[in-house]
């Protein structure tokens, strides 16, 4: 069995805290290993509390004195237990076997061998996603298998650019929010250019995009455009990136197209879960018809769609839509010590993901919704919340949005975090002054955001009950510190409801009062 350790060097005071009788959380602890040396006082305290304390040197000597022959794992032995992000209740322990991991690595090899650019031991991956994120874990497994390098960021997401400049990775993987930030940064830099330089950039963009849509690779579509303009975008990612992978949530088609053209690197989207040992479908580099999709079925995986009648999703209709179900050797064995939940999602050998997919006739999959993130309004209409959030996020004034509907109410409300630059431009155009925080308190800004959300709803032909009727404006992003999102930036909806409930209640009261006038 493979065991992962998160280690740190305990100093004297920390070890004494652990050994203290006041530390009730260590009641089941039997052994402590210090990565440094230990003191007589620490050893005595450990002995008195029934624990054994070892220094690192002692552990090394014990290993030398008690050598064992290697014991290769069997395919169905547990390799690791990965914990889900816990967006709905407690995190679940996903049991992955050695067969799961080995099959994933073999399948990735088959996928990568299709392309001209081969992976070498000179490749470098920058790991900044949490180690508990299956995308990061599986990429690292693949890199170690090939003898390539993995570098770990310094722990501050705001210093990620510094890490990119220092490590200069050849592969960069992240969740959509990271790439949205890159996109926004480039657009901001463009807005500050002289008009004629901005015009040249846009002309080069359209030219290269035209040839890529005709089937040319990103390398051959326009080397001149890359040299004159787009290499600067590549430099923002360290200058050596050859492959960009986006996963964890759908990437906006606008952002994906922009990065495919300007990053001077291959870009692919994939789809998978912790329970599927990572990628289960994956796109192809340089195929522009796959923009906005998560590609085709990976090696050793089967995909099917299952009907969801309450949401009117039918795999036999046109387009073919339904819950994504997966089967294959990369699927997890069970939820650790949770057989009831395992039976709930594993039916006749198929893992029911809870995600709603749309399958094109050519086998390309697009994730459009989340089955569990639905609720019913008072008039009996079902609302697919993630679909609406992804739709409304295209508005330039919206940095992020959380849509909510009370089952006792007939309308939707939302909490929005405005885009700071767009908010400042709106303020200047409308005679408002003040800090971003002050602007977010203005009723005029709320009205403007609601107008923009209405435009998005009408453009996308959303049904009347899917329109946002009231909002809360929060200048702060949804963050881990307030327990509003997971480390992988997925919304913790129960926590968000608890955090914003008072403000949401006031919004509903205002809507009710306006209707009575």
TrEMBL record:
It comes from the Eukaryota. Residues 42-336 form the AMP-dependent synthetase/ligase domain. Gene3D superfamilies: N-terminal domain of ligase-like. GO terms for biological process: cutin biosynthetic process; wax biosynthetic process. GO terms for cellular component: endoplasmic reticulum; membrane. GO terms for molecular function: long-chain fatty acid-CoA ligase activity. This is AMP-dependent synthetase/ligase domain-containing protein. It comes from Zingiber officinale.
């Amino acid at each position: 069995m493979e065991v992962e350790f998160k280690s740190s060097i305990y100093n004297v005071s920390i070890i004494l805290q652990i050994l203290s009788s006041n530390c009730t959380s260590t009641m089941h602890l039997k052994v402590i290993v210090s990565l440094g040396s230990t003191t007589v006082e620490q050893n005595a305290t450990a002995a008195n509390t029934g624990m054994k304390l070892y220094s690192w040197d002692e552990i090394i000597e014990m290993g030398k004195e008690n050598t064992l022959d290697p014991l290769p794992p069997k395919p169905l032995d547990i390799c690791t237990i990965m914990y889900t992000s816990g967006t709905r209740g407690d995190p679940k322990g996903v049991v992955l076997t050695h067969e799961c991991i080995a099959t994933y690595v073999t399948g990735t090899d088959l996928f990568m061998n299709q392309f001209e650019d081969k992976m070498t031991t000179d490749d470098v991956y920058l790991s900044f996603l949490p180690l508990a994120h299956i995308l990061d874990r599986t990429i690292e497994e693949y890199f170690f298998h090939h003898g390539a390098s993995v570098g770990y960021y310094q722990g501050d997401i705001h210093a990620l650019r510094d890490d990119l400049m220092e490590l200069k990775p050849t592969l960069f993987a992240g969740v959509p929010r990271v790439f949205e930030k890159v996109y926004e940064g480039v657009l901001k830099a463009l807005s500050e250019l002289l008009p004629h330089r901005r015009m040249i950039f846009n002309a080069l963009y359209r030219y290269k995009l035209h040839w890529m849509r005709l089937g040319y690779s990103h390398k051959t579509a326009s080397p001149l455009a890359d040299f004159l303009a787009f290499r600067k975008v590549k430099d923002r990612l360290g200058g050596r990136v050859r492959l960009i992978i986006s996963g964890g949530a759908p990437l906006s088609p606008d952002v994906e197209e922009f990065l495919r053209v300007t990053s001077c690197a291959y870009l692919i989207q994939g789809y998978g879960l912790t329970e599927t040992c990572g990628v289960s479908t994956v796109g192809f580099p340089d195929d522009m018809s796959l923009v906005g999709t998560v590609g085709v079925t990976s090696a050793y995986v089967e995909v099917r769609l299952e009907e969801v009648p309450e949401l009117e999703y039918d795999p036999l209709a046109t387009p073919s839509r339904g819950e994504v179900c997966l089967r294959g050797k990369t699927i997890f064995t069970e939820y650790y010590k949770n057989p009831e939940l395992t039976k709930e999602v594993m039916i006749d050998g198929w893992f029911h993901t809870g995600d709603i997919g749309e399958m094109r006739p050519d086998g390309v999959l697009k994730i459009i919704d989340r089955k569990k993130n639905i609720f019913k309004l008072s008039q009996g209409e079902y609302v697919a919340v993630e679909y609406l959030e992804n739709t409304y996020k295209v508005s330039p004034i919206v940095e992020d949005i959380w849509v909510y509907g009370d089952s006792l109410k007939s309308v939707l409300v939302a909490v929005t975090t405005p885009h700071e630059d767009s908010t400042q431009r709106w303020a200047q155009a409308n005679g408002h002054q003040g800090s971003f925080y002050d602007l977010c308190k203005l009723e005029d800004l709320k009205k403007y955001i609601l107008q923009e959300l209405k435009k998005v709803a009408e453009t996308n032909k959303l049904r009347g009950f899917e329109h946002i009727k009231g909002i809360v404006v929060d200048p702060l992003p949804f963050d881990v510190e307030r327990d509003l999102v997971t480390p992988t930036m997925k919304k913790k909806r129960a926590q968000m409801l608890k955090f914003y409930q008072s403000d949401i209640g006031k919004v509903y009261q205002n809507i009710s009062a306006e209707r009575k006038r």
